[in-house]
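Lecture notes, unit on protein representations.

Consider one protein chain, 275 amino acids long.
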Amino acid sequence: MSGPFGADTVSESDPAEIAIPKLLEEHGGRMFGLALRMCGSPEKAEDLVQETFLQAFRKWDQFEGRSQATTWLYTIAARLCGRMHRKRSGEPNRIKSLDALLPFHGGDSAGVPEIPADEDGPLARQLRAEAVENVERTITNLPATFRLPLVLKDIIGFSVTEVAEVLGLKEATVKTRLHRARLALREELSRQMPQREASPTAYSRRVCMDLLRAKQEALDRGAPFPLETKDFCDRCSAVFASMDLAKDVCEDLGSTELPATVRRAILEDVRSETR
């Protein structure tokens, strides 16, 4: 596996004092983005990033190269997330059931989100700005067991296989949690957007569900959806447009800058441990 940024530039033969600064330079920002969405505050996120890289430095001799160094690094972060995470006041224990999250359970009487076709228009820009806030809030409110796979896959950019390796889960389990988390994002985005009446569905609910499953699988692979819009009914088109908007926002959230103070502190930790 090559990780979300291509082949690693470090190997198990590199000494720790060289490997860890390289990993920090390449992954510090995205690691901080992961920590922000798992810890609930910038201060705790900074602590998590610092502890992740310090542990990676101390345990570098345990890295045997069976996986990519990137995957190994995020495995350390995921374990620390589990240890550091404490349920916040108001945080739900569970996510809605899959049946409750499915976008077609409301029938033809339910409205659909109105997403402008002109992505550069003022309304589209306003809706996108609101979507960023809604997606960030919804991710923060997801239970950690669903939040972490979503952040690793759709924000950090790992494959499903890599997420499964990082979390020590079966790929099928990762997909189940990922799909439900995506549907929760879609539901919240749709609820906050202007609604319009959809045209009567041209297909059975089963066909729409099959299309939704294919859409999720395409997102899992990071591949374009194999069918064109003309192949969808009005309701499916609106559902998939809201899913694509959530995906685009998640990708944008992956670009996070690690505070310079944290970067300096980690490098100082490495130098201190080396002496």
